């Protein structure tokens, strides 16, 4: 469904992207309203593209705009989502913004299995789908915070041909050391996160879930499933982590393969000491052989390199 020239953009809601196993994932695409070929800023994640930042995370929204009023300035803020870019600030400058609901969340059906090989393949195919659209110049960039940063490392290791640059904000990379067992000690974050931020927007909640403040569509799909059906369509992250106390194949399969990452990236590590986004291994990685660059320079200057990769 396309909305002609809404808030200085062309918007396509719920665009279907067919995966190699036949599953159709859903994306919202925000484009300049003039003909042309543009670079794409793409995000793929589980927080439901139809859930407004202000509705899903009201206290965080209020704190952010109180402390950083520039975030909300110059935008209607109707399309603000958790931890991704505001299309109203990018589309007028000649970029396409594309948001994909990851498999099993929001309006994308399927089985939820975070950071799995299946999810990474889905991400790869979304990038390649975007890269060949008539409105794309062939350059796809990735941007986003936390989850939307972590999975950038994963998909980059598959080397999608149309992926030209990544902007990674607080993206951990080692599922065991960085995320689930800090110093070998179990982190309870993921079980709580799963209950609060993923199960609440799982595909199949239908009428039991929220509605989009912009379109009125059901954020979690048009099908309403029972609790038992929902449980069958998702991995149990908390139990899975507890059942793998050591760094085994389960953890390694959910950690990025840095040896395969060749795309240039700009990455902002977390220097505040939060366990979820640690800095140690990232620093070791940046001292290695690939084209890494940390955001240690003024923000505008740091972003220049990232944006140049998409415009070139």
Account of the 3D structure:
By secondary structure, the protein is of the alpha/beta class. It has a single domain, classed as Rossmann fold (3-Layer(aba) Sandwich). The chain is about 30% helix and about 20% strand. The protein has 12 helices and 11 strands. The chain has helices spanning about 55, 60-65, 85-90, 115-130, 145-155, 175-180, 190-200, 225-230, 235-240, 250, 280-285, 300-310; strands spanning about 1-5, 10-20, 25-30, 40-45, 95-100, 135-145, 165-170, 180, 185, 265-270, 290-295. A 9-stranded mixed sheet has the order 1-2-3-5-4-6-7-10-11, with helices on both faces. Strands 8-9 form a two-stranded antiparallel sheet. Strand 8 and strand 9 form a beta hairpin. Helix 4 crosses helix 5. The longest helix is centred in the middle third of the chain and has 15 residues, at about 115-130. It is globular. The two termini are about 30 Å apart. Mean pLDDT is about 90; it is low at about 280-300.
Features:
312 residues; alpha/beta; Rossmann fold; two-stranded antiparallel sheet; 9-stranded mixed beta sheet; 11 strands; 12 helices
CATH topology: Rossmann fold
Terminus-to-terminus distance? 31 Å
Specify the CATH homologous superfamily: Alpha/Beta hydrolase fold, catalytic domain
Overall tally of structural domains: 1
Overall morphology: globular
- Count of individual helical segments: 12
- What structural class do helix, strand and pairing data support? alpha/beta
Using the CA coordinates, give the radius of gyration: 19 Å
Low-confidence stretches: 279-300
CATH C-level class = Alpha Beta
- Structure summary, number of beta strands: 11
Label the CATH architecture: 3-Layer(aba) Sandwich
Q: In this structure, how is the largest beta sheet organized?
A: 9 strands, mixed
Helix content: 25-40%
Query: Strand portion, in percent?
Result: 15-25%
Instruction: Quote the average pLDDT.
Output: 88
Q: SSE order in H/E notation?
A: EEEEHHHEHEHEHEEHHHHEHEH
């Amino acid at each position: 469904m396309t909305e002609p020239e809404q808030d200085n953009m062309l918007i396509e809601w719920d665009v279907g992207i067919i995966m190699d196993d036949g599953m159709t994932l859903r994306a919202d695409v925000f484009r300049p309203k003039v003909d042309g070929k543009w670079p794409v800023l793409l995000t793929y994640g589980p927080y439901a593209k139809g859930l407004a930042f202000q509705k899903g995370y009201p206290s965080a929204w209020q704190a952010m705009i109180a402390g950083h009023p520039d975030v909300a300035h110059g935008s209607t803020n109707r399309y603000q989502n958790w931890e991704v870019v505001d299309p109203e600030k990018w589309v007028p400058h000649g970029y396409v913004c594309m948001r994909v609901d990851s498999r099993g969340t929001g309006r994308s059906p399927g089985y939820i299995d975070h950071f799995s090989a299946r999810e990474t393949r889905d991400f790869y195919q979304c990038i390649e789908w975007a890269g060949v659209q008539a409105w794309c110049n062939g350059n796809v960039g990735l941007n986003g915070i936390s989850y939307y940063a972590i999975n950038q490392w994963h998909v980059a290791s598959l080397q999608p041909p149309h992926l030209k640059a990544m902007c990674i904000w607080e993206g951990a990379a080692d599922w065991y050391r960085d995320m689930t067992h800090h110093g070998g000690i179990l982190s309870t974050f993921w079980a709580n996160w799963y209950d609060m931020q993923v199960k609440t927007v799982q595909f199949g909640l239908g009428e039991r879930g929220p509605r989009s403040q912009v379109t009125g569509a059901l954020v979690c799909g048009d099908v309403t499933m029972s609790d038992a059906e929902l449980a069958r369509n998702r991995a149990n992250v908390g139990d899975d982590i507890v059942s793998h106390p050591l760094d085994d194949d389960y953890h390694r399969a959910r950690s990025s393969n840095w040896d395969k990452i060749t795309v240039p990236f700009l990455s902002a590590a977390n220097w505040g000491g939060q366990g979820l986004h640690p800095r140690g291994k990232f620093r070791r990685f940046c001292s290695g052989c690939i084209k890494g660059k940390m955001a240690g320079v003024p923000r505008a200057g740091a972003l220049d390199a990232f944006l140049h990769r998409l415009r070139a």
